[in-house]
Design goal:
This protein has about 425 residues and is α+β, with helices and mostly antiparallel strands. It contains 15 helices and 16 strands. It starts with 13 loop residues before the first helix and ends in a 5-residue tail after the last helix. The structure holds adenosine monophosphate. The site of adenosine monophosphate has 17 residues, from strand 6, strand 10, strand 11 and helix 11.
């Protein structure tokens, strides 16, 4: 019996992995330039970390976590997102003196027991970043401008930035009460989930996708009308800087995000081409979470971009890197294979993609394979060439052929592929 991968868990095949690698390298370059240091966090954490940070009333904690007991009976969870672990690490290592700002970036898999569909998987990868210790609106704007830059550099244009502010602990309770009253009067028109959440978490109704709920909340009180003066100023600062930087945005007061820990600025980058799962990245400020998880009062902000969704956009854009090129060493016969084997090592060591057949095959089938592999050059060595210590070098794009000495292959390929003289 064959064993298949678990539903919602994907193999990333080489062609796709090349796009991922391209995305990752741009991500590390761009975020490195903005001063974000890389951090690698564990995949497993104690369950209570997520229950306490993400919030008990959220989809993630209610029904999407991969939770199990380890052999000593502790409840562990495969991380559903990166922020909670990042905050845990920040607190645990006291990464920074009180007045210091810490900036981190990470890439890695997350796990959520969601219903798999296009753009939604049970293991998916996120490219994320978090900043601790800076509450100014400059920080929010920096992160959004940097993200816009990242999308641009990775070759994705046309994502739409949706922006909102959720206020703070001083002003949000007032809004929450107003909204709760409003929803309580219309509770019979809400879906089961929203109805159940109205007493604890009425804001969640704002981004419910059910048509009936959308109709109700369309005329609900709007959060931006309830911000206190500091939150209003903060939000105005963010939008002013975005406008000055030429980053377009749309204010979306229904966007509350599915996690409990957000405050003030929240945002999502949407891409129409993605279909139903159209959020390519999202995040926001979470000024209270560090203290809630036992750290000092520390303002913070972060985002996560979905790798699979971003890769879909990159694959349709012109940003994908070449996965081909190099040279196919086409050995006709066992002596030629033996002779070309060390040559392949030299070429690879010189950073040139070099493929060699280890089994004897006809020239025709080797040329076909070279074509499939997308190489730029084919180097053909049969018995006759071998006797003369020569090879036939064919440029696959022009069809031109020439003879080269075997001892000249590496410098020749270097010149032709890397465009540099050999010394
Ligand atoms: P979130 O942590 O829910 O704010 O998600 C941040 C980003 O991660 C989203 O905008 C998506 O691009 C991506 N994402 C979230 N959940 C999934 C999933 N189940 N499968 C694939 N990508 C996801």
């Amino acid at each position: 019996m064959k064993i298949a991968a678990i539903k919602g868990f994907n193999d990333i095949l080489p062609e796709q992995a090349a796009v991922w690698r391209h995305i990752e390298s741009v991500f590390h370059r761009v975020l490195g330039a903005w001063g974000y240091g890389e951090i690698r966090l564990p995949l497993l954490e104690y369950t209570e970390l997520f229950a306490r940070s993400i919030g008990g009333e959220t989809d993630i904690v209610e029904k999407e976590m991969y939770t199990f007991s380890d052999r000593s009976g502790r409840s562990l969870t495969l991380r559903p997102e990166g922020t909670a672990s990042m905050v845990r690490a920040w607190v645990q290592h006291t990464l920074g003196a009180p007045a210091e700002v810490g900036k981190f970036r990470y890439v890695g898999p997350m796990f959520r027991y969601e219903r798999p569909q296009k753009g939604r998987y049970r293991q998916f990868y996120q490219l994320g970043a978090e900043v601790f210790g800076d509450e100014s609106f400059y920080q929010d704007a920096e992160m959004l401008i940097m993200l816009a830059r990242f999308f641009h550099e990775v070759g994705v244009e046309g994502t739409k930035l949706h922006l909102n502010s959720l206020g703070c602990q001083a002003c949000r309770p007032h809004y929450r009460d107003e909204l709760q009253h409003f929803l309580a009067d219309r509770v019979d028109r809400l879906c089961d989930d929203c109805r159940r959440r109205v007493p604890q978490n009425p804001l969640r109704a704002l981004d419910c996708k059910q048509p009936a709920c959308r109709e109700v909340v369309a005329v609900a009180p709007r959060i931006l009308d309830y911000l206190d003066a500091p939150c209003r100023e903060h939000f105005a600062g963010v939008t002013r800087l975005l406008t000055a930087a030429g980053v377009e945005y749309e204010i979306d007061q229904f966007m509350v995000r599915g996690l409990d820990y957000y405050s003030r600025t929240t945002f999502e980058f949407l891409a129409g081409e993605l279909g139903a799962q159209n959020a390519v990245g999202a995040g926001g400020r979470y000024d209270n979470l560090v203290a809630e998880l036992g750290g000092r009062e520390t303002p913070a902000i972060g985002f996560a971009v979905g790798m699979e969704r971003l890769a879909m956009l990159v694959a349709t854009a012109a940003g994908a890197p070449p996965t081909e090129g190099g040279v196919a060493l086409t050995a006709l016969g066992a002596p030629a294979i033996e002779r070309l084997f060390p040559l392949q090592q030299e070429l690879c060591a010189a950073g040139i993609r070099a493929l060699l057949n280890y089994r004897e095959k006809s020239l025709k089938s080797l040329l076909k394979k070279a074509d499939r592999d997308g190489v730029r050059y084919v180097l053909i060595v049969g018995d006759q060439e071998l006797e003369r210590e020569e090879a036939t070098l064919r440029d696959m794009s022009t069809g031109e052929q020439r003879t080269v000495l075997l001892t000249e292959v590496v410098p020749t390929m270097r010149r032709m592929i890397h465009g540099r003289q050999d010394n």
